[in-house]
């Protein structure tokens, strides 16, 4: 039973070691401070994210509020994971666990995953920044590369566009390098009208100016403006009219404007140039002379 008595003595000596208990108390205190500090950091970061999301929601349409809240939840989760990871490392360091091998192992695993799924990682990172930076939203009309259409869905991996002819394009986010958004600012409708050289240009401008002032449209932001002569062509004088419309709504208004201007010019007998053909034929009575006709 000697070994038993020695074990009891060792345990008693260890439990009565004041230095050990002092170090253990200090370690526990430092761990408690680390945990409390981690909770405070998470609270502050979440409050900052919530404040930023609320400000962005006030500047976006109501249909995009859900997406902004999703971004907020994603950012909160990411920040919580980062803080918790750092907290675990600090707690391990309090137990004299060497962090070098752990970090090295995690780095090797992350590197292997990155090499094995480069395209997926690129798609996810690009999708995250598309959502975070609010580059475009669901319902916007955008063009990226050869694809143009209305955004139906924005995901972390891919974006779905529907063209005006009905085709649906699913584009990996990693392939989205440049984006043109047609739904942010007002658009400009540009209408060029050709008038024959024989007509009175001043009268034509007056008729067009009176006509465009009467054309009403819900997408019109500012009254149309007749700029005047845009170009002197080979057989026509080109007059230009511009009008500011709502985003991506200029096409419908342009068609309506052309229709009304054509009707007004016809009503005032102002000719729009069209191709004319002149035929030359020989007259037998004139001894083979040339006679012209239109």
From TrEMBL:
It is found in: Cell membrane. GO terms for molecular function: mechanosensitive monoatomic ion channel activity. It comes from the Bacteria. Keywords: Cell membrane, Membrane, Transmembrane, Transmembrane helix. This is Mechanosensitive ion channel protein MscS. The chain crosses the membrane at residues 28-54, 74-93, 99-121. Residues 190-272 form the Mechanosensitive ion channel MscS C-terminal domain. Residues 77-118 form the Mechanosensitive ion channel transmembrane helices 2/3 domain. May play a role in resistance to osmotic downshock. Signal peptide: none annotated. One of its GO terms (cellular component) is plasma membrane. Residues 120-183 form the Mechanosensitive ion channel MscS domain. It is a multi-pass membrane protein. Belongs to the MscS (TC 1.A.23) family. InterPro entries: LSM_dom_sf, MS_channel_1st, MS_channel_C, MscS_beta-dom_sf, MscS_channel_2nd, MscS_channel_C_sf, MscS_channel_TM-2, YbiO_bact. It comes from Paenibacillus abyssi.
């Amino acid at each position: 039973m000697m070994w038993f008595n020695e074990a009891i003595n060792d345990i008693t000596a260890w439990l009565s070691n004041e230095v050990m208990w002092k170090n253990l108390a200090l370690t526990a205190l430092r761990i408690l401070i680390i945990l409390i500090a981690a909770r405070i950091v998470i609270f502050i970061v979440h409050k900052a994210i919530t404040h930023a999301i609320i400000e962005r929601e006030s500047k976006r349409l109501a249909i995009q509020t859900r997406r902004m809240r999703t971004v907020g939840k994603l950012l909160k989760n990411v920040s919580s994971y980062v803080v918790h990871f750092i907290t675990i490392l600090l707690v391990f360091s309090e137990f004299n666990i060497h962090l070098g091998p752990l970090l090295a192992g995690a780095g090797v695993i992350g590197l292997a995953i990155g090499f094995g799924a480069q395209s997926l990682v690129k798609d996810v990172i690009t999708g995250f920044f598309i959502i975070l930076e609010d580059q475009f939203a669901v319902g916007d009309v955008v063009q990226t590369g050869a694809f143009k259409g209305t955004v139906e869905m924005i995901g972390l991996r891919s974006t779905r566009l529907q063209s005006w002819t009905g085709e649906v394009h699913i584009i990996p986010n990693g392939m989205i390098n440049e984006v043109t958004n047609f739904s942010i600012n007002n658009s400009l409708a540009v209408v060029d009208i050709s008038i024959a050289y024989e007509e009175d240009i001043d009268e034509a401008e007056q008729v067009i100016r009176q006509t465009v002032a009467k054309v009403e449209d819900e997408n019109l932001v500012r009254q149309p403006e007749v700029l005047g002569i845009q170009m002197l062509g080979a057989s026509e004088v080109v007059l230009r009219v511009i009008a500011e419309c709502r985003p991506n709504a200029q096409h419908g208004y342009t068609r309506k404007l052309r229709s009304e201007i054509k009707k007004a010019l016809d009503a005032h007998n102002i000719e729009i140039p069209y191709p004319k053909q002149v035929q030359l034929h020989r007259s037998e009575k004139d001894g083979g002379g040339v006679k012209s006709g239109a």
